[in-house]
């Protein structure tokens, strides 16, 4: 899937959908903390969204709320990282399925860590659910969508092929841009939508 394409349509069997507007990084962190409070060992969270939608940023906030160790960064070239719990909570397994296929994911042996971990898979929609929790299993799908207005910059305007020479961070960069988060529930563990 290219970052220029739209994410795949929601999978069949969706039980509910909740949409939340995340105004900035603080709102994203609060949403991740609320969600972390609901996730138990064995939970699967599939993250969907284009390049730069905030999947890894969300996972960093989720990991912080779960209290796991280690810096959470994009697992693009490593494919999978395990962040160990610092207390009694579950480990966090962070996976990037962008550059792999079902056979490549199978070689990661994620099923061996599922029972004791919260597993977060970026770019995994339609590829990991049945493999990790079975066709009758439960999972959450979180789609992050950047606000189109937040993405538009003066350099993007038609006829402006200007060269960017100022790479300093703006206040918007530091606070994070606005996103929509669409959380979808699947399977018997997620029959009812959570109170977020």
UniProtKB/TrEMBL annotation:
Pfam families per the UniProt record, alphabetical: TsaE
Record's keyword annotation contains Acyltransferase: no
Per its database record, what is this protein's job? Answer: Required for the formation of a threonylcarbamoyl group on adenosine at position 37 (t(6)A37) in tRNAs that read codons beginning with adenine. Is involved in the transfer of the threonylcarbamoyl moiety of threonylcarbamoyl-AMP (TC-AMP) to the N6 group of A37, together with TsaD and TsaB. TsaE seems to play an indirect role in the t(6)A biosynthesis pathway, possibly in regulating the core enzymatic function of TsaD.
| Gene3D superfamilies listed in its UniProt record | P-loop containing nucleotide triphosphate hydrolases (3.40.50.300)
UniProt family annotation: Belongs to the TsaE family.
PANTHER family documented for this protein: TRNA THREONYLCARBAMOYLADENOSINE BIOSYNTHESIS PROTEIN TSAE
Annotated localization: Cytoplasm
Any idea which GO molecular function terms this record carries? ATP binding; metal ion binding
Keywords assigned by UniProt?
Answer: ATP-binding, Cytoplasm, Magnesium, Metal-binding, Nucleotide-binding, tRNA processing
Q: Which organism is it from?
A: Nesterenkonia aurantiaca
Q: Name one GO biological process term.
A: tRNA threonylcarbamoyladenosine modification
Q: Which NCBIfam families does the record match to this protein?
A: T6A_YjeE
Tell me the InterPro entries matching this sequence: P-loop_NTPase, T6A_TsaE
Where would one find coiled-coil regions in this protein? Answer: none
Please verify whether the record's keywords include Magnesium.
yes
Entry's Gene Ontology cellular component terms: cytoplasm
Name used for this protein in its record: tRNA threonylcarbamoyladenosine biosynthesis protein TsaE
């Amino acid at each position: 899937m290219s970052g220029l394409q739209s994410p795949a349509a929601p999978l069949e069997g969706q039980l509910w959908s909740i949409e939340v507007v995340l105004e900035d990084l603080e709102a994203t962190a609060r949403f991740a903390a609320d969600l972390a409070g609901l996730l138990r060992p064995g939970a699967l969270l599939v993250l969907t969204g284009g390049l730069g939608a905030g999947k890894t940023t969300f996972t960093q906030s989720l990991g912080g709320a779960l209290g796991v160790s280690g810096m959470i960064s994009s697992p693009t070239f490593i494919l999978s990282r395990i962040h160990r719990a610092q207390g009694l909570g579950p480990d966090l397994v962070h996976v990037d399925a962008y550059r792999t296929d079902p056979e490549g994911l199978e070689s990661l042996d994620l099923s061996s860590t599922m029972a004791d971990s919260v597993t977060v898979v970026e770019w995994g929609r339609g590829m990991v659910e049945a493999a990790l929790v079975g066709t009758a299993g439960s999972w959450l799908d979180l789609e992050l969508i950047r606000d189109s207005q937040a993405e538009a910059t003066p350099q993007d305007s038609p006829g402006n092929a200007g060269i960017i020479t100022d790479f300093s961070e703006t206040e918007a960069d530091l606070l994070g841009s606005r996103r929509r988060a669409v959380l979808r529930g699947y399977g018997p563990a997620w029959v009812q939508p959570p109170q977020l």
